[in-house]
Design brief:
Acylphosphatase, five-stranded mixed β-sheet, alpha+beta, acylphosphatase activity, about 110 residues, about 40% helix, globular, Alpha-Beta Plaits
Length: about 110
């Protein structure tokens, strides 16, 4: 009896760890995303959701986002980015990839 209780505790801890797995993604967002407050509004969304990572402008007029968070949180974040956090912005295309090698960050930063 004592041994089976121990197994249950181990399984519960394993399940808890699996739920909290961090998803890391990289997005290249194209459309009207530069010069409209897109990066700063995206940062506000990331901060509200508890997403960490970076957002930066690219020379081709797109924006690159690296983001990490729990699966459901990242799904919500992606949905908000699709709608364009900036009222003046417009997202036309998103190239979304998993990014397991993304550097860990403590917050979401606007860079470049």
């Amino acid at each position: 009896m004592f041994q089976s209780q121990k197994i249950v505790i181990i399984n519960l801890k394993l399940k808890e760890r699996m739920v909290n797995v961090m998803n890391k993604i990289k997005m290249n967002v194209q459309g009207r995303v530069q010069g409209v407050g897109f990066r700063y509004m995206t940062k506000l969304v990331a901060d509200q959701l508890g997403v960490t990572g970076t957002i930066k402008n690219e020379e081709d007029g797109s924006v690159t986002i690296e983001a990490a968070g729990e699966e459901e949180t990242i799904k919500k974040f992606i949905e908000e980015v699709k709608k364009s956090p900036s009222p003046s912005g417009r997202v036309q295309y998103i190239d979304l990839q998993e990014n397991p090698l993304m550097q860990e960050r403590k917050k979401f930063d606007v860079i470049g």
